[in-house]
Design goal:
187 residues; 2 domains; mainly alpha; single chain; elongated
Length: 187
């Protein structure tokens, strides 16, 4: 089984997110894989994600792809940081769930943790929106963004929908490359 290689490095995480230098990065890296496979791949679509990942690993990205990956890295970093928060102070051990405390530390309350997680997710969403805007603006350089190899998981509709007072002229283009799971995947 191949080792997962993220777009994001330890240096990047510790330089561009609130993760401090003393955090054991092995506590964060599992969340990078989860975020990339669940959020990033869904955001840009599996064909484009797979193509970018291959080129990133082989160091063959062109200038436009480098800009896209730079935007992706910001979103991935913030989202992975948000995902790892509960697991940095709590561990699942053979004795059950344990809360870790240092000699001079205090565990914040649940509301503080929720607030921090929400702030990090807001930053991730901001960068994810920049990714979508960049892809739309530069769509001629990313033809894989408008393709799919998973017809089941993508909403495709030829009908115009008017679910609210807001009219969006090109609803189908907004729904391209959105992988949905669960009971609402075809709605």
């Amino acid at each position: 089984m191949a080792t997962f290689q993220s777009f994001v490095t330890e240096y990047y995480l510790k330089s561009f997110t609130p993760i401090s230098q003393n955090v054991d990065i092995t506590e964060v890296t599992p969340h990078l894989e989860t975020v990339e496979l669940i959020n990033t791949r869904e955001l840009i679509g599996k064909p484009l994600y797979d193509d970018l990942k291959t080129k990133f690993i082989n160091q063959t990205l062109d200038a436009n792809e480098i800009q896209l990956v730079d935007l992706l890295k910001r979103g991935i970093s913030y989202r992975a940081t948000a995902e790892c928060i509960p697991f940095l102070s709590m561990k699942i051990t053979s004795k059950g769930v344990q809360t870790l405390r240092g000699d001079y530390s205090e565990t914040p309350g649940l509301n503080s943790i929720k607030y921090l997680k929400a702030e990090l997710e807001n930053k991730a969403e901001y960068y994810e929106q920049r990714v979508i805007e960049y892809l739309c603006k530069n769509s001629k350089y990313f033809p894989l963004y408008n393709t799919s190899d998973d017809i089941e998981g993508i909403i495709q509709s030829s009908e115009t929908r008017y679910d609210s007072d807001i009219y969006i002229d090109d609803m189908d283009n907004l729904r391209l490359n959105k992988y949905l799971y669960g009971p609402n995947k075809n709605s």
